[in-house]
Design brief:
This protein is an alpha/beta fold and about 325 residues long. Helix content is about 45%, strand content about 15%.
Length: about 325
Amino acid sequence: MPLTGHLAAAGQLMKEGYDLALAEINMAQLGSTQFKFIVKDDNSTPEGAVVVFNELIHEDGVSVIIGPATSSATKAVFPIARDNQVVAISSTAGARGLGAISDFVFRVPLTTDVVAPRGVKATHAKLGYQQVATLYDINDEFSTDRDAALQEAFTANGIDVLTTETFQSSDIDFSAQLTRIQALNPDAVFVSALPPEKPGILIQARELGISVPFIVSSLTDVEVQAAGAAAEGAITFIGWLPTDDTPGNRDFVQNYTDTYGMEPNAFATASYTTVYILAEAIKNAPSTDSTAIRDALANIKDFDTVFGKFSFNADGDAVYEPKVLIVQDGTLQPFE
């Protein structure tokens, strides 16, 4: 996971989710097998992920790796898992096609080709936008793929794209792109970005006086709080809320809040859920070698999680119900 570098803040939230799930599982198994993590920092880069994947496989001899976080890093390391026949399961990488790299790789987030068309259909039906603009991180695999999935959904729904603007990870000034978007007067703006850039985009858009709906990829309460009033009314397509009435969700939110002093966000939740899915596979597998765990993961069907009923499809990608959320009174709420 990224514990230093551009995505360190998101990585820390992920680590909290992993650690809480591990502590709960070990507590439930007192007197039986206890699990521990070997934690590696990929420095928020694909190159760093390649280094630590090889360390975990060739030096530590693991049969399963949870990670990495981004789709860019996942694209770089899933072939390493394939070539070494080691299971890799990412809790947060959502770009299309990565699960098909190998039958040893799995993902817990919903992929862009699932989320984008359903989200566009739901928001278009209610908001009625006909002309839109998009803005995405050209250096990030997920953001690039999400924008492509959005463009396909716009075509399918007869929505015109007035312009597509790009930026790069770590940019802090988005005024030029937003000014060009503003001049075209779109009905809505779609943003595909990593966590650090989202608050700045929302803040600068509102400072320019852009008042149309912003529909932002995987927006969490952390970015909402960072953007403050500028996030009000922003919409996102995501798979979970702290208030969801799903198996174990109330206890998870309470335990996380008690442990860390704040409610979990989607990154922590996905990480927490990943550990429980892996634990279920280990429990069901006849041994702890990678092939046995791979087969047990592939057979996960309708497993009760805080996301609801969870399954893997034939490509090792997640199957559960996506949601559309909107920021109201400073918090994410169901878009209804």
